[in-house]
Fold this sequence. Notes:
A: alpha/beta, eight-stranded parallel β-barrel, B: Ubiquitin-like (UB roll), five-stranded mixed sheet, 12% helix
Amino acid sequence: MSFYRTLKDREDKYIDEKLRGITEQEIYHVLEKEILDEKDFLVILSEKAEDYLETMAKRANELTLKNFGRVIHLYSPLYLSNFCDNECVYCGFKHSNAITRKKLCLEEVELEAKAVAATEILHLLALTGESRKETPVSYIKDCVNILKKHFSSVSIEIYPLQQEEYAEFVLCGVDGLTIYQETYDENTYQKIHLKGLKKDFQFRMDAPERACNAQMRSVNIGALLGLSDFRKDVYFTGLHASYIQSKFPGTEVGVSFPRIQPQTGNFLPANPVSDKQLVQAILAVRLFMPRAAINISTRENSALRKNLIGLGVTRMSAGSRTEVGGYTASIKTEGQFEVNDNSSVAQAKEMISLKGYQPVMKDWLMI
Amino acid sequence: MLIEVNGESKEIDRKISVREFLLELGANPKVIVVELNRSILEQSQWNNTVLKENDKIEIISFVGGG
Amino acid sequence: MDDKLIIAGHEIKNRFMLGTGKFSSNEMMKASLESSGAHIVTVALRRVDIKSKNENILKFIPESCIIMTNTSGARNADEAVRIARLAQAMGCSEWIKIEVINDNKHLLPDNLETIRATEILAKEGFIVMPYCNPDLYDARRLKNAGAASIMPLGAPIGTNKGLKTKELIKILIEEIDLPIVVDAGIGRPSHAAEAMELGASAVLVNTAVSVAENPVLMAEAFALAVKAGRYAYNSGPGAIRDTADSSSPLTGFLR
């Protein structure tokens, strides 16, 4: 079984019609419900529901307080390598981009880790571009072994693996997987992924499930907002998250909302998502999945991130550098995308505290 | 010889088949099931099964219940 | 509207199920059964009392009813399995309500033994309806073991206290993809309606009907309450707000 089948089932031609035909009565009714089903989720993702954001926000705020309290978990990304075999039109690391390619050697990983750890970050997300040749599983594992010494939790965001490979990483001490489907619209997906193994739509989509089967403790998914119709992408992201949660009740499921930002190559999104629409997406997912972790990265600026706290967000990256070696190198290579929140970790912590929330650096420890 | 019927000791004075025994007791064969020594005894076997010393018989029927 | 109750592939014509125990007479039981229109009816197995001339209860149950044998009396899985096989040997239907209780003070079911019995009997082709404490993990285990439904208790047997386990039942309804039939503790038709409004697929009632002063009328009241609750559930009731709407706008920053 695979979410791909569920996707194909639900992906009927009528979703557009359904989204257009939503009535106020339906929206009102959904917002009164305690438990939302898939149809309800679609209702609050409709354009008409944009008029109800304040009501949705109050519900989302209530739910998030109940389930998570006044807490924001902080983490930082650490790019190990920007070598990539794929040609994704929207990404700064795409193969055809003439950027300086770099891969950290193990000594450099140690230095980078120390630099991040010095900011008091304890949860780390290790990333690579997608190249099995340049950054094979063995290399990434070696890096994880170093990172483990400095952080209480290490997650990975790398190319999709086979189940046995995820199992190796779990054994190694990795407790989280982040992997974005980019878009759940298969047609668009094929058009924007021109070359490379990433063209395999289903293999990527099934990666979270393979990781769960390998006992990965948490998985984080999302669509890159702006590539396609965001309402449908968020809808299918929610369905995907719900599918994973139902199938693997013991796994912590999280959803991210990466919006396309300026990057090398200057790809412009076909369907740019406004702040209001981003908020709607976050609120809708919170109402549909009251216990999913919701993540906002430094793709978004500080002011917006501050306002998003209290609307359902439970995790944020801080102090981020998206260049390989970005935390220590004096001469920087190109980052994967432009970071819009350049606050330091200390500043992020203060912002969160001022908002009346507690920044949490360590949620758990792998022993 | 002594046998046990529904948890109670009973003395029987001759060789008797299960079927005869049930009829003598006044049980209605149509609405009961019989366990002999913890095994269900099919109705077809009642005639040719003879009771022995220390046999334990349970005679069960449907009653009202939740 | 197509709102059929299907259990194990069989269409069950009434979401009200009736237990036949503790009635003053078989005739009274029959009349109550008829006034409620129940489709699934439970019976138990007991040692025949040779001395008394008790009429066969099956004669009082219409042929159109599905007779579900309750394994009451079983204190563990082996005894429940034994009772089920006895029922089968009687030529009775394959419907079994597993009730394993080894506690005479509270009469609470033993979930662990219930799961064991379900595994064995489901493999033998029985349609297994397990009566249990409303535990989510155990419900998943029961489903994996082959149960045709989950029958969580609303409150301990005979207490008639209503849905004391309401929040847990709600979770089962949300998470378990099987009919949830609330059993035990339902003392009034309003409790039954409440269970149905939550989204339960059906309810099973015994004591509340059999010990009522007018069991025939009470049985009808229950059947009507179950219907009302189901209609309410299907019509999408509005929520009851716990807190009033307050404070400063959370999305003001978007303007």
